[in-house]
Each structure stands twice: as C-alpha cells, then as structure tokens.
Amino acid sequence: MAWWKAWVEQEGVTVKGSPHFNPDPDAETLYKAMKGIGTNEQAIIDVLTRRSSAQRQQIAKSFKAQFGSDLTETLKSELSGKFERLIVALMYPPYRYEAKELHDAMKGSRDDVTGFVDPGLALQDAQDLYAAGEKICGTDEMKFITILCTRSARHLMRVFEEYEKIANKSIEDSIKSETHGSLEEAMLTIVKCTRNLHCYFAERLHYAMKGAGTLDGTLIRNIVSRSEIDLNLIKGQFKKMYGKTLSSMIMEDTSGDYKNALLSLVGSDP
User: Fold this and answer.
1) How many Cβ atoms sit within 10 Å of the Cβ of residue 92?
2) Is 209 one of the annotated binding-site residues?
3) Can you tell me the mean pLDDT for 202-231?
4) What are the structural domain ranges in the chain?
5) Fewer CB under 10 Å: which end of the chain, C or N?
6) Rounded to whole angstroms, what are the CA distances from 247 to 227, 244, 254?
C-alpha cells in the first residue's frame, strides 16, 4: 500500500461512482457518443467523470464484450489534445496511472500505516539524521533517503519534532544546508507532504495554473489521482491559501470540453 493511503478520508472524495451502477448501458452510451461522424464529448464527460476507477474498468470490459473494441484506444482515436489526455488518464487503474506517471521515481514501502508510532525509534531516527548531516563534515545522503522513504507519515512527524530538539533547527533547514538539486527538492517534498498533505497538493494545483499558460500534465495528474482520495479536502485548503476556489481558477485557465471534464471531477465548491 502506498504510504499516502493512510491519509484517506471518505469526505475528501469528489468522485464516488454511481450507486446503481450497470456497465452495459454506460458502455452503450459511450459507443453511441463516438459512433459515426462527430463525437458527443458531453456524453463521455457525463459517464467517465461520474464513475469510480473500478467502475470505469468494468465499463471498458463491457465495451470490449459488446462492440469488440478497446475503449481506451477508441477514445484516443476520437478525442484530441488536453481533453484526450485527461479522459485517457481516467481509464487507467490507479496503480497503473501512478506507475505510468512516476515510472522513474524511487519506490519505497513505508512501515506502520496503522498510526502507531514507536517513540524510541522516532528518537533514534532523529539522532541518526543529525549524525548523518549536521554532526559531520559532508552528508550521509543514504541515511536521509532511507528514513524519509521508509517511515510512515505519523512516525516522521515525531521524528521531525525530536530532530528540532536535537539540532535546534528544523529538518527543512538542515535539508537545505546539507543537500542540493533534485535530491533537496525530493526530500523537501516528502517533508511538506508529511506536515500537510492537502497543503502540498493545493500548492501543486495552484502552481500548475498561476501565471501565463497552464501546466496541464501537473493539473491532470493531481486532479485524477486525488479525486477518489481527498480532493474535497484539498479544495478547502486551496481556498484557504489562495482566497479563491479551485473551480474558479480552472474556469479562468482552461476551456471547452477539457474545462468541463475537470470541473466535473472537482465537483461543487466547499
């Protein structure tokens, strides 16, 4: 299980799926939406953005059984641009989508997703981090990587508290002084996610849309990946941090079917 699953809260889900689900009529609706000349994009949005990932997989199976075609490939042939990218992203099971987007990222199995924290181990980890960085000339980067990538979020929160007592500075300040480049950025991201996961994703979404142009890959990835986890909670944090709703910023920065599909995934404002 990926470590952030420990943060899942049901009220945070924006896409809960259909309570009276039947994949066959949904598959037929999609077939009719793409049959012949032209495409009914709204029908595609209405079906795929309002079904859970598991339900979309069942729709794909029904589509193949009824019409003999692969649904994802059919969508690719009928759609284009950012809208195609978003809709195709929805067709991946979560684990495959994460693998596709993060295939070159380091994977780690984090311990203790139940919430239990061993105070002794947390103190030891804090001491090991101090010994690997501030206490020596140079940095034992592997020690930082091992602890940050194999401990649970709750455990790391305790480690950070103990570390500040030992080092008289925050773990963030130590990472900034002891590392640089991509490694520094990765470690700071882990710390930020640990301290406030929803704040981190709100920042990423805002970053994707601020200024001229839109980072569509970042926008799609974060909305698709969090829509069945905690996007509602991220929306609340977004409004608190930036004084505007996520939906309003999407409306300002995107357009057409792409905008409509994003808004359907995001749901109503908090």
Assistant:
1) 19
2) yes
3) 90
4) 21-92, 119-195, 197-266
5) N
6) 13, 8, 10
118 annotated to bind ligand: no
Tokens standing for residue 199: 């704040």
pTM of the model: 0.73
Whether the CA torsion 97, 98, 99, 105 is positive or negative: it is positive
At the fourth CATH level, which superfamily is domain 119-195? Annexin (1.10.220.10)
Same topology for domains 21-92 and 197-266, yes or no?
Answer: yes
Q: pLDDT digit string (tens) for 42-68?
A: 999 999 999 999 999 999 999 999 999
**CA distances (Å), origin 35, targets 49, 77, 115:** 20, 11, 50
Q: Which two tokens stand for residue 231?
A: 């996007």
Report yes or no: 208 and 215 within 8 Å, Cβ to Cβ: yes
Q: Is 27 exposed, middle or buried (0-12, 13-18, 19+ CB in 10 A)?
A: buried
Ligand-binding annotation for 253, yes or no, is yes
Q: What angle do CA 180, 181, 185 make, to 5 degrees?
A: 90
Q: Supply 120's token pair.
A: 């002794």
Which candidate, 153, 221, 164, places its Cα nearest to that of 193?
153
CATH 3.90.1150.10 for domain 197-266, yes or no, is no
Q: Which of 209-213, 235-239, 244-248 has the lowest mean pLDDT?
A: 209-213
Q: What is the rounded distance in angstroms from the CA atom of residue 42 to the CA atom of residue 32?
A: 12
CATH number of 21-92: 1.10.220.10
106-154: per-residue pLDDT in tens?
A: 344 455 545 567 889 999 999 999 988 776 566 778 888 888 888 888 8
d(CA 162, CA 169): 11
